[in-house]
Structures are given as structure tokens and as C-alpha cells.
Design a protein that fits this description.
By secondary structure, the chain is α/β, with parallel strands linked by helices. 33% of the residues lie in helices and 23% in strands. It has helices at residues 5-10, 39-52, 55-61, 85-96, 101-110, 126-135, 158-175, 187-191, 206-209, 222-227, 239-242, and strands at residues 18-20, 23-24, 28-33, 76-80, 111-115, 141-145, 178-184, 213-219, 228-229, 246-254, 263-267, 273-275, 279-283, 289-291. A nine-stranded mixed β-sheet has the order 5-4-6-7-3-8-10-11-12, with helices on both faces. The protein has a three-stranded antiparallel β-sheet with strand order 9-13-14. A hairpin with a 5-residue loop joins strand 13 and strand 14. Helix 2 (39-52) crosses helix 5 (101-110). The protein is globular and about 60 Å long.
Length: 294
């Protein structure tokens, strides 16, 4: 049905429904990062945040570990295509140590994690696609970890990848959920230290050009490790020996709303990512230490 232009001119527009700030409901987004950076942990914790509830509630029960401040609770489906069930259970257990009892209950009620490793899911097959849509009906968020595990098209073909994203858009519209897919960066962007750039995604440009939101997780660079400290006063730089524990999250493409500031996370036991405030080690004119603005 065509948009009623007269009504659109004269009436207040509907309030946009965001899964988390900037990620609009019923759209497709991407999270792009090198392998072994922590993107699966970030996505799993984000899924738990959405499953747990609205901003105030999730903070009160300790469920929003990544600090996304989701607007409301909803059913979340997480398709895990890279790891066996035993590894996934280990991750869930590690994250659970940082969650309150109420948060664990809410997450258990609203989050479904499907281990699809070896099951050859292909959303470009009409039968598979229909089953995915039926299984994910009335969900708020669908996570695909990773994109390469759910299709058999040519990743370097813009035509193929545009078709793939269009299929994921069909899933989003049919279910009412946002679809977040995880994807790797190219070897060149990893080599050149540009994994936080929009064009860092491996394969055809349509993979990012055609989505409405794109986030990244990047390892701490050597220069950042020399300039940042975890301690409020008199802290030593994080340094080369410890920079592997820190990753930076940000958004490099967002079509709706204001882009949130970047933030740092520190890896804890089991690989769990928790937000951390980092300070700039540079002294500013005798006025003490200034907070790193990211």
C-alpha cells in the first residue's frame, strides 16, 4: 500500500522503534570484526541485553552488560554457526557469573540459542527460509553468527550479496525482528589496522552498503596501549603486554538517529566483555588527568 502523503504532511510521524540506539526495528544490521576479537561475545551479550528488558529494568537486574540500553524486552533468536554446543554453554556460563538472578531468569525466558554448526542452513533455499521465518516469528532480534554460515553465494559478488541482504530484509519484515549478522574483515584492512572502517568488511561492498546499521569491534592498537591507562590517577600505560585484553566498539554506519560514542571493553575470565573507563595518560597543563573521549 502506498504512503498517504497528505496524512504524512499533516500528522506527526510515528515514533521510531529502536532495538538499541540507532538500530531500527525490522531492519538489517552488521557487526564486523577480525576473527578472535570478541565479536561473538559482544553479540551474545547484546542478545541477552535485548532479551532481558528495557533500559531501567535491565540495569536494575544487572542484565545489560555491554551498556546498550535496549528500549524494551523481546524474544531473541541466536543462530550460532561457528561453535559447537559445548563451547556455547561455556560462554553462557561465563557470562552468567556477571548477571543477577532476575536477569538470568528473564534471559532464559526470552533468548533461544541454536547451534547450527554442521547443519548447512541456507537462507537462499526457499524451504530453509520459510522455516527460519516461522521459527523466528514475533521475535525482536535475530542474530546470525556468522554470515558465511547461512548461504552458498559468492561473497565477492555485489549482485549476490545484494540478493542475500534483500533476503535478510525479507526475514526482518516478515518477523518484525531486526536481523544482525556477524561478519569478518578483509585481510587487507586487518593488515593495515583499518578494521574500524566501514569498508573493512570482507567481500562485496553491498554487504555494508545495503544494511542500515554497522558496528565494529577492534583490537586495541599499540599507540592506544601507550596512551591509555585503566587507572584514574597515576596509572601506567596499558602497554603491549596487556593490550590484548581490550577491544573498542563503535558504529561506522547508521541511517537512523544519532550515532553513539565509541566505548572500550575489557575481556574477563572466559572471554566475557565488560565496559571499562580508560584515561589518557597525557597530563594537561597541570589540571590532572583527562578522560579519553571515545
Amino acid at each position: 500500500m502506498a504512503i498517504d502523503l497528505r496524512a504524512a504532511f499533516e500528522s506527526e510521524p510515528p515514533t521510531l522503534d529502536f532495538i538499541w540506539p540507532g538500530f531500527l526495528a525490522s531492519t538489517v544490521g552488521a557487526l564486523v570484526a577480525p576473527g578472535a576479537t570478541g565479536k561473538s561475545f559482544w553479540a551474545l551479550e547484546a542478545a541477552m541485553s535485548v532479551a532481558c528488558g528495557a533500559t531501567v529494568e535491565s540495569r536494575a537486574v544487572g542484565g545489560d552488560l555491554v551498556g546498550l540500553a535496549p528500549t524494551k524486552a523481546g524474544r531473541v533468536i541466536y543462530f550460532a554457526g561457528e561453535d559447537p554446543e559445548s563451547a556455547l554453554i561455556g560462554r553462557i556460563h561465563a557470562i552468567g557469573k556477571h548477571l543477577g538472578p532476575q536477569a538470568r531468569e528473564a534471559i532464559a525466558d526470552n533468548l533461544l540459542i541454536e547451534a547450527i554448526l554442521g547443519k548447512r542452513l541456507n537462507v537462499m533455499d526457499d524451504r530453509h527460509l520459510a522455516r527460519v521465518i516461522e521459527y523466528c516469528s514475533d521475535s525482536r532480534l535475530i542474530v546470525l553468527d556468522t554470515l558465511s554460515r547461512i548461504h552458498n553465494l559468492d561473497e565477492n559478488s555485489n549482485g549476490d550479496m545484494a540478493q542475500l541482504v534483500a533476503t535478510l530484509e525479507h526475514v526482518a519484515v516478515s518477523t518484525g525482528a531486526s536481523v544482525l549478522y556477524l561478519h569478518h574483515v578483509s585481510k587487507g584492512s586487518a593488515r593495515d589496522g583499518q578494521t574500524d572502517q566501514q569498508q573493512a568488511a570482507r567481500g562485496a561492498s553491498a554487504l555494508v552498503d545495503n544494511v542500515r546499521w554497522c558496528g565494529f569491534v577492534a583490537r586495541m592498537a599499540d599507540k592506544e596501549a601507550q596512551n591509555l591507562t585503566e587507572h584514574a590517577y597515576g596509572g601506567q600505560p596499558i602497554g603491549e603486554d596487556h593490550r590484548g585484553f581490550f577491544v573498542r566498539f563503535g558504529v561506522n554506519k547508521q541511517n537512523y538517529g544519532l550515532t553513539s560514542r565509541e566505548r572500550w571493553y575489557k575481556q574477563h575470565s572466559g572471554g566475557v566483555l565488560l565496559p571499562v573507563d580508560l584515561l589518557d595518560t597525557k597530563h594537561t597543563g597541570g589540571k590532572g588527568w583527562r578522560r579519553e573521549q571515545v
